[in-house]
Structure formats: structure tokens, C-alpha cells
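Fold this sequence, please.
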Amino acid sequence: MYKRMLGDTIYRLRKEKGLSQDELGKLVGVSNKAVSKWETYEANPDITLLPLLAQALGVTTDELLTDIKAEKDDLKPKEAVIFGVAGTAIETPDEYEFVSDKKTKKDLPYLHIHLGKQIQTMNAKARGIIAIGNNAKGLISIGFFSIGLVSLGMVTFGLLAFGVFAIGLIAGGTIAIGGLAMGAIAIGFLSMGGLAIGYYAHTGNAGYAIGKHLLIHK
């Protein structure tokens, strides 16, 4: 019964999304034959594929397994105050978003927070004077992937950038590129790190420095 119900649900949702079996398979990482077996009740998807399958079909995992639409009340904006800033927030099992009521003349929020299970690296989901999220863009940005005047995160770009991979006028991180760069691998006019490359290069006891002016501790 469970196998048949799940196969019917996958078939219906796939058709609603306008996907072929091959297209759905590519989104999940399986062959079109595997999708066909799911829909003809020959097999069930591996449990580890259910989150990917649900995302590809535009539903939650619970909706995929039960074929019952989740309540949408949690999608309604609610009044909230974050860091003393009033605004509206949406909270679901998959994401949290807050947008401040106060905005610039260009309709840019003073504070925008967007946190989700999926990490987006192409288009910023959080945009504001202060932006916080998986992918953030703002004057001050904090996120896994962030762009801003002051930028903090895993992959960062900005005037002041700090992250595992950082590019900026002043950059700090495992890999840092900038006018002043500090990191395990540092590239810049003034660079300090295990591997330092720059006009002025400074390294530690066991590092390597490449540049016109070198300062190496012994």
C-alpha cells in the first residue's frame, strides 16, 4: 500500500511540475529507469533521496510521504522585532526570513535575514543594509556566501572580508587575497601567512614567502 501510494504521489507531482522521468532523475541523481520503477510500484526511493526528491517536486518530505498538503499558516508574515528593528518574519521548517519595515528610498531593507536549508550561491537571498543569510549581499553582510563593504562568512568579497576564502582590500581567511592579506595562503601587497606572496611578504617559522621584500622568522 505504501509503495503504491508513494509511486502515485511521485507520478502526480512530477506531472504537475512538468518534468519528464529523465529530468526528475537528473535532479535527484538517479536514472530515468529508477524513476519509472518508483512510479510503477517496482521499487521505492532510497530513504536518503527523499529530501532531494521532495525538493525537486516542490513539497516537504512529509507531504511526499503522506500526500497531504501541510498547513500554510506558518507562511503568513508575522510581526517581529530583531536587534531592536521592527519588521515581518516568516518561519517554516525549511527557512526563516525577516524583513525590516524601515527601508531606503530604493526599497532596500535596513535589515534582511534569510536562512534556509539549501545554500544558494548564485543569487543573494538576503539583501539589505545589513544582510544575514546563507547568501547575503549588503553594506554589512554575514553569510556562507557574502558580498559587502564589511563581509563575514565562508566565501566573502568586500572592502573588509573575513572568511575561509576571502577577497577584499583587507582580507583574512584560510585563503586571503587583498591589499592586506592574512591567512594560511595570503596573496596581497602586504601578505602574512604560511604561504605569503606579495610586494611585502611575511611568514612564520615554517612558512614560505615570495616577494620583493621578505620578512621570515627563524
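The chain is about 20% helix and 50% strand. Helices lie at 2-17, 21-28, 32-39, 50-57, 61-66.
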